Amino acid sequence: MDPYKKGMFLENPYYAKTDVCGRLAVVLRSRFDERGLSLIAQPSRCVKRYDVHELICCDEETARPGTTADRIAYLGFVEVTQGGVIVVGDELHCGQTFLGTVAGFDETHMPNHLNIVIFNPQRQTGEELKLKTDDEVFFRQKRD
Q1: Which of 5, 6, 84, 133 is deepest in the core (most CB within 10 A)?
Q2: Comparing C-alpha atoms, which of 55, 66, 126, 65 is closest to residue 91?
Q3: CA 31 to CA 58: how far, in whole Å?
Q4: How far is CA 110 from CA 23, 46, 48, 54, 100, in A?
Q5: Rounded to whole angstroms, how far apart are CA atoms 30 and 73?
Q6: Integer Cα distance of 26 and 132 in angstroms
Q7: pLDDT, tens digit, for every residue of 3-35?
Q8: Long-range contacts: 93-100, Cβ < 8 Å, 24+?
Q9: Could you give the 3-state DSSP secondary structure of residue 9?
């Protein structure tokens, strides 16, 4: 039985962890208002060095594990340069620019790639944010 689905964790079990780092391999520019991404129940995913995953921005405050995300904007694809664990609530940065916080994960395209859904009330595409290929990005545990 999955401990997350069973509700066994009453608090965040991730006390400390390293940053997950990567570089943008693709910058995207599309958006949808009814995408229907199914966020999985688990609030974390392991990513390995050289994996490529998609970054998707969502402006829905209700988007979290076990829910659906509809209003999205595509940011891009990231190639992981330093693997680790990405957790809901982690902050995503591109250089000095804060892009949002991890809201959840969608496995529609697995095993090809994972959709990493990022909450930001400004819901902008990678093109609108002027992201560039080879820009460095990192996921960092939110500091309390």
Answers
A1: 84
A2: 55
A3: 10
A4: 20, 13, 14, 11, 23
A5: 6
A6: 8
A7: 777 777 777 788 899 999 999 999 999 999 999
A8: 93/137, 93/138, 93/140, 94/24, 94/129, 94/131, 94/135, 94/136, 94/137, 95/135, 95/136, 97/129, 99/55, 99/57, 99/75, 99/129, 99/137, 100/57
A9: coil
